[in-house]
Amino acid sequence: MTERQVSLRREGAVALVTLSNPGRLNAMTRAMWRALRAVFDDLHGDTALRCVVVRGEGGAFCAGGDISEYPSFRFEEASLREFHENEVWAALQAMLDCPLPLVAQIEGACMGAGVEIASCCDIRLAGASAKFGAPIAKLGFPMAPREAALVHGAIGDVLARDMLLAAGVHGAQRLYDAGFLLHVLPDAEVPAAAQAHAARIAALSPQAARLHKATFTALKSGGAAAQQLLATAYDYADTAEHREGIDAFLAKRPPNFRPS
């Protein structure tokens, strides 16, 4: 594990991004937020990779923010704004901007910052004993507006309001029922299932994945972004991946989507 407490390891076409804050259930320090942004900035333009698994070390995903740091900066408006806008949101935006599919491997605690990080992922798998919440109202402060909007959009109105207004903590099955999770699995099966899902994605067309992610982003933004999407939606017509996928299907053979 690097000193940055956020590591990146490549396994073929899959990248493993691991959060590590031993003894604190991988609670996010300021250094970790900066490191998370740097890791995802490094992933842009890496044509050898086709999927990213985001996970925590030691059987927990992320227990929130590292509150031991908070007295040093949270009581001044300027430093508080700097933290949320230029550290936390900058890292989350780097994840949202990543053109690669992101798979969250959620084990144990997924609280506060953990829910925010998981909300940036495209696919989320969790262990049956995982717990989700953002009980920061107990600490006397709200979730920052853009972070709250991100979580609200991912988990839905009912659970977002309960987590933020009533400090509600919910199990994995409740998050599955709300559409936040793709699968709830026995705890011991989560790492293998997440990596198998990533490998499945990595075997498919990276061009299709990239364009699908761009579509989701543009349609959510609406307005000019949606109009630009419609203007360029068919630019892939004369591309090698498009031809290879159809040729392979007609020839009844597996496709070979080479890095472009």
Write the layout of secondary structure elements.
Elements (H helix, E strand, L loop, with lengths): L5 E6 L2 E6 L10 H14 L7 E6 L20 H20 L5 E5 L2 E3 L1 H7 L3 E5 L3 E3 L11 H11 L1 H9 L3 E3 H6 L5 E3 L4 H13 L3 H16 L1 H10 L7 H12 L9
What is the compact description of this entry?
The chain is of the alpha/beta class. It is 45% helix and 15% strand. The radius of gyration is 19 Å and the shape is globular.
Share of residues in helices: 40-55%
Q: Which structural category fits the helices and strands?
A: alpha/beta
What's the main sheet like? Answer: 6 strands, mixed
Total beta-strand segments: 9
The whole-angstrom Rg is 19 Å
Strand order of the main beta sheet, please? 1-2-3-4-6-9
Number of helical segments? 10
Q: Which of globular, elongated, flat, extended, rod-shaped describes the shape?
A: globular
- Average pLDDT confidence is 94
Ends: how far apart? Answer: 31 Å
Order of helices and strands: EEHEHEEHEEHHEHEHHHH
Portion in strands: 15-25%
Poorly predicted runs of 5 or more residues: none
Could you explain how this protein is built, in words?
Helices cover 45% and strands 15% of the residues. With 260 residues, it is an alpha/beta fold. The strands form two sheets. A six-stranded mixed β-sheet has the order 1-2-3-4-6-9. It has a three-stranded mixed β-sheet with strand order 5-7-8. Helix 2 links the parallel strand 3 (51-56) and strand 4. Helix 1 runs parallel beside helix 2 (77-96), helix 4 (145-155) crosses helix 5 (157-165) and helix 8 runs antiparallel to helix 9. It starts with 5 loop residues before the first strand and ends in a 9-residue tail after the last helix.
